[in-house]
What we know:
Strand order of the largest sheet: 5-4-8-2-1-14-17-16
Helix content: 25-40%
Number of domains: 2
Number of strands: 23
Number of helices: 9
Shape: globular
Low-confidence stretches: 20-43
Largest sheet: 8 strands, mixed
Bound molecules: zinc ion
Radius of gyration: 27 Å
Strand content: 25-35%
Distance between the termini: 69 Å
Amino acid sequence: MRKSKTWLWITLMVVVLGSFFWMRGVYGTARNFITTKPDPAPVTRLFPSPEETSYHMDLKIDPINLEIRGYSVITSRNTSGADLEELWLTTYPNALRDKTNTPAPASAYYSGFDPGWLMISGVMVNQSTASCHDLGISHRIDLPVPIAKGETVTIEMEWKARIPQVAYRYGSKDGVVLLGHFYPVLNVLDESGWHTSANTRFGDPFYTQSADYTVRLWVPEAYQVAASGEILSIEAMDNGWQNLSIKASKARDFALAVGYNCQVSSVTVDGVKVSGFFKGTYPAVENQVMDRAAAAVKYYSCTYGSYTRPQLVLVQAPMKGFQGMEYSGLIFLAEEVFAPEYDEQRRAFLVAHEVAHQWWYDMVGNNQLEEPWLDEGLANWSARQYLKTVEYRSPQSQSQLREINLQQGLTEMESKSNYLDTAYQGGENFWYQLEEELGEEKVLQVLRSYLAAYRFQTAKTEDLRQIISQQSRESLDSFFKRWFTTR
Ligand SMILES: [Zn+2]
């Protein structure tokens, strides 16, 4: 009896101790998670911050040899909430490096395929040499020393780019060089990680934070310069070149057009200088485009909130694949838009749409890869509002106002027509239907609040939904569910 009791005790001890170690094995991870110091907090803040980021660029643009030599200094502060071990840049010219991947349509290559590219030859981060990896449309910088949260970061880069002979938003034709997204740009880091660009054949695969730009530019004296920013000075040099000093505050991007023999004209509306760099072939159309752009600036300023740049420049651009392209303070309009046979209604809409992007792209930015409907839908609806209110044109036919799933990223769309149907038409329909729910005045109030809350920042669909709910004093959940079905 005694012996069997001892064995019972031993068996019991084995079971208890075994269970204890087994439980430790199973729950060890969870116990550690609860009781030990947690991992560093996830990144919850945005980098680079628009308030604390500046680009200084020295650019030598050679429109004859189609080459850019650049020296960039990007200064920011690590506002990501965690230490940074790498930095990511978008280097868009590399999208046009290979014939098989170029986003430019075949019709844009007027003398056969011609590559465009950007090469970074040396990078210093906080005065230490850093290694930079060419991944095509992206470059990754591995930092020799991590940048602690809150620390200032200065990135110095020497780079060189080739301007391709292609009628595209980055390219050149007939003595005009178009430079959209031509320099290395810091990508955005948020709680979901780094947002890298993608090489898409349609749409705008960009997501950038606003920054302050100062640019020193060297170009041959015979060329005129249209720039995103204000040209502060032009100095002639003794070698036939000129040196320009340009400044752009809180710009989502910095774009340039350099042209030979352009006709430059301007009108001023409410203190904003609207300039045109046109060919001078159809002066009546050119004047009409200028006047309409000026009227649209005035209308959007009065309706949503002031235009904040001293100028807006329109460029008649040798560009295929797009009829218009928006940049901060600068708009490219395709040459064909100026032809007298071009549909007048379409031209009016296009100009109003591109000017509206100064509010819904430049001022309030968004991730154009993930939520392209935000800026395109609003630019479309705003253009219709302008045409209805200022030019007394009839609004869109109500029969087209069908619901479309707006929760589609650019890379999920299989064709350009799918992109146009979703981001442009679907986005526009969303605003028309919201107008039916809330009334026009409430919708305009929503947009005033949206601009006031996110001026020079970036907004997401969820941010907009909250503003709509606040203004309408109802959740509109079922309305949103109809437009945003989970992927
Ligand atoms: Zn657009």
